[in-house]
Design a protein that fits this description.
about 775 residues; Beta-lactamase; 3 domains; four-stranded mixed sheet; about 35% helix; elongated; Glycosyltr_51/Transpeptidase; peptidoglycan synthesis; glycosyltransferase; protease; Beta-lactam/transpept-like
């Protein structure tokens, strides 16, 4: 009868079968609820025919950089696939057992109804719903439940009495209307993606993976027959619990496929002889089961902040868990595993000292997160065992992180930047007063931003006092010198620099809100990712970017969703960023001289050690990577005698940055313009080592540089007295035109070497800021306390 099946025929047939309710009681067609046939037809015609459905919930996937699935997020384990991704044998099996005349009827099968009626009267109760009707019913129930409409859900499942008959009538009219709107293939595709197949699997793709570990496109005949047979009673034919029932039902499907001509008798018998061999798989449902639970937790929380996924948190959550999103991230699975192993080699999981470590690495100029790792195993519960926790030490508290850790002397980077903005230079003289010298809020300029009171800082073992260059103070992390520097540039200005470079507390507050010591000596808490991102601002030539874990989001239909691209903003003058960077390269000849540069690359950074060595840090960057490594005692904080920023954190930072830089070209620091390119006004520094002061000055000025001569001479075993032994910028470096180069003159060749008549050449130990290597202890031997 095809699509010409009349509404009257549908009504009569359905009324007949609808009378066969659960108890088997027959309700006559004419006289149904007191209606005449004409009135009944009118009732059928008055039912709405417009069929609407809520989109099917399907799992979202968090993907690694190479497309590997890191985790799946879902309310229902469902992966919607097009019909051409479902094996034809699976389609045949489902049609054979549920509706063998699917391609012949127009939504309601009169012949099937008559057959079911006859067989039911003979005592063999049969159903007569077509695949289209089943799709309509399941969709109505699904939509009602998702819209939390309990009344509609109950009506869509009514089985007895007048409500049951009305449901059947409504399904019939919807089915006829649906067949006029959609093709048979579209209806079958919707059905196969919607039906529940047991064991938490919704849709045939999820079922194929759940039971056999294969895609729906790769199902064999026995596998397809088993899954198809579960559509009616998934619980009763669950192969995990009832393998015999599952096999019997599968064989029923195979026989039906033979009877309808879909397979031969030989294929049927061969398939029946095949035992059910399950290869169960579970999707990485939610973060605890993912390949990196910490990163997964972070991504979920980050997505909940993205307005592009919905105006409200409820809308975003719905889209994340039901929208079938493909969430492409910056995460490199193998690289992060390598970073984690690097941390654990120095500080194993659950080490006896109770020391934790965490590392965060970002890409300057984009904010893309390269690595996040810590030396713990993910705990799904409230584990008290050290080495197991669900807290992500690398990120802020709102992303599943801790309340953060005091950052110590890594805060001094912001003071260096502020000094450059105020016109100071690497050679600016800074006086370091004696330990215990008290500084008032007024003296430090703190009253301008609400600070009151005073504090008296002290140094540790180095005990350095007196005049020194800013470069030397930074290299050696001299606390009292940086308090004096704050009095020169203003502690409120330093705090403002922290804010614009992206530093904030791990709990979301403004860094430095607890007091002046927090600004100058890093007494407030922050996360490694925040510190790494702030340092990346210098590497990017003054461009600040928020950390970004996700690069692209699309749904099943390919629709894209806008997410944060880092909100990058030029917050520092490129020349300021470059000059601050040059000063921070001095760490390798200061507190970090035993750390070493990562893979010999150009690098800058700063050690950090808080009071009593409770928290230690190394933060720094190369032109292409910025990172921060924390080492400390997380809960509760405890002193770590003899541990400083260069003891564990420094070497770990070196190894982590080397690992995350593998394959990148070697680059030098340079002035980066706002468009990300090198400034055109950059020139190469000439080699003037061994020249006289006048000759070196003339050569540098001719090249386009300004010249400054340091007031004190340096030890140089092969350079005659008064000649240039070292320069603040190394020969061959590319530096901005007009940059100041400081000359360091030699104290002279020792008499013993003069007697040996050795050829003069430069062997002076130097740092790239121009400060000769001081004899003071470094951070591995002396702390740089917060207070």
């Amino acid at each position: 009868m095809g699509n010409a099946f009349s509404l009257l025929g549908a009504f009569v047939a359905l009324s007949m079968v609808a009378g066969l309710l659960g108890a088997g009681i027959f309700v006559p067609v004419v006289g149904l609820a007191g209606l005449t046939a004409k009135e009944a037809i009118g009732t059928f015609d008055s039912l709405p025919a417009e069929f609407t459905a809520s989109p099917m919930a399907q799992q979202s996937e968090i993907l690694a950089k190479d497309g590997t699935v890191l985790a799946t997020l879902y309310e229902e384990n469902r992966t919607v696939v097009p019909l051409d991704k479902i094996a034809p044998i699976m389609q045949d099996a489902q049609i054979a057992i549920e509706d063998d005349r699917f391609y012949e009827h127009g939504g309601v099968d009169a012949r099937g109804i008559a057959r079911a009626l006859f067989q039911t009267l003979q005592g063999d109760k049969q159903g007569a719903s077509t695949i289209t009707q089943q799709y309509v019913k399941q969709t109505r129930v699904y939509t009602a439940l998702k819209e939390e409409d309990d009344q509609a859900a109950e009506a869509a499942q009514a089985r007895g009495g007048i409500p049951g008959i009305v449901r059947k009538l409504q399904e019939a009219k919807y089915s006829i209307a649906l067949e006029e709107k959609l093709s048979k293939k579209q209806i079958l595709e919707g059905y196969l993606n919607l039906i529940y197949y047991g064991a938490g699997a919704y849709g045939v793709e999820a079922a194929a993976m759940r039971y056999f570990g294969v895609s729906a496109a790769d199902l064999s005949l026995p596998q397809a027959a088993m899954i198809a047979g579960m559509a009616q009673r998934p619980g009763a034919t669950d192969p995990f619990q009832y393998p015999d029932r599952a096999k019997a039902r599968r064989d029923d499907v195979l026989q039906r496929m033979r009877d309808t001509g879909k397979i031969s008798t030989q294929r049927m018998r061969q398939a029946m002889r095949t035992s059910i061999e399950l290869n169960p798989t579970r999707g990485q449902a939610s973060c605890p089961a993912s390949k990196d639970p910490y990163f997964c937790d972070f991504v979920k929380a980050w997505l909940m902040e993205q307005p592009g996924l919905g105006d409200t948190p409820a809308e975003r959550e719905k889209r994340i868990y039901r929208g079938g999103l493909k969430i492409e991230t910056t995460y490199d699975l193998a690289l992060n595993e390598q970073v984690k192993k690097t941390l654990e080699q120095r500080l194993p999981v659950g080490n006896r000292a109770g020391r934790g470590t965490a590392a965060a690495v970002v890409e300057p100029g984009t904010g893309h997160i390269v690595a996040l790792a810590q030396n713990t195993d993910y705990a799904t519960g409230q584990s008290k065992e050290f080495g197991k926790t669900s807290v992500n030490w690398t990120v802020d508290q709102r992303y599943g992180g801790s309340a953060g850790f005091q950052i110590g002397s890594t805060a001094k980077m912001f003071a260096v930047v502020t000094a450059m903005e105020k016109g100071l230079s690497a050679g600016t003289n800074v006086y370091a007063p004696a330990d215990g010298t008290r500084f008032s809020a007024g003296r430090l300029g703190g009253t301008e931003c609400g600070y009151t009171g005073s504090f008296a800082p002290s140094n540790a073992e180095s005990r350095e006092q007196g005049n020194m260059t800013l470069a030397h103070a930074a290299a050696m992390s001299v606390n009292t010198a940086f308090v004096q520097l704050a009095s020169m540039v203003g502690v409120c200005n330093e705090r403002a620099t922290m804010k614009k470079m992206g530093l904030h507390t791990a709990t979301g507050g403004e860094y430095g809100e607890s007091g002046m010591a927090a600004v100058i000596l890093g007494a407030d808490n922050a996360s490694p990712l925040t510190v790494a991102s702030a340092y990346a601002t210098l590497a990017a030539g003054g461009k600040r970017c928020d950390p970004v874990p996700v690069t692209k989001i699309t749904d099943f239909n390919g629709q894209g969703f806008k997410v944060s691209d880092g909100n990058c903003e030029q917050v520092l003058d490129p020349n300021v960023a470059y000059r601050a960077t040059r000063i921070l390269t001095g760490v390798w000849e200061g507190t970090g001289r035993n750390v070493g540069r990562p893979d010999g690359r150009a690098a800058a950074g700063k050690t950090g050690t808080t009071d009593r060595s409770m928290q230690t840090w190394f933060a720094g960057f190369t032109p292409q990577r910025a990172g921060a490594v924390w080492v400390g005692t997380p809960d509760p904080p405890r002193p770590m005698p003899g541990v400083y920023g260069a003891t564990y954190a420094g070497p770990l930072w070196r190894d982590v940055i080397a690992a995350t830089s593998k394959g990148l070209p070697r680059e030098q620091f340079r002035v980066i313009s706002a468009d990300g390119n090198s400034s055109s006004d950059q020139i190469e520094v000439p080699n003037v080592i061994g020249r006289s002061e006048n000759s070196a000055t003339r050569r540098l000025q001719e090249a386009g540089f300004k010249v400054n001569v340091a007031s004190r001479k340096v030890r140089a075993n092969t350079i005659p007295w008064g000649r240039v032994a070292d320069t603040s910028l190394e020969a061959g470096e590319i530096a901005p035109k007009g940059e100041t180069v400081t000359l360091y003159l030699s104290r002279g060749i020792p008499a013993a070497q003069q007697a040996n008549n050795r050829t003069p050449r430069s062997t002076a130990t130097r740092n790239s800021t121009g400060t000769p290597s001081p004899s003071s202890p470094d951070d591995s031997a002396s702390p740089s306390p917060t207070n």
